[in-house]
Amino acid sequence: MIPPAKSYSRVRYRIDGKFKKFRALVALNDAIIGKYALSPVTFSVRGDDRELWKSKPIKFAGRVQECTVDVSGVKMLELRARVKGSPLHAAAVWLDPYLGG
Question: Residue 54's domain is classified under what CATH number?
Answer without folding.
Answer: 2.60.120.1060
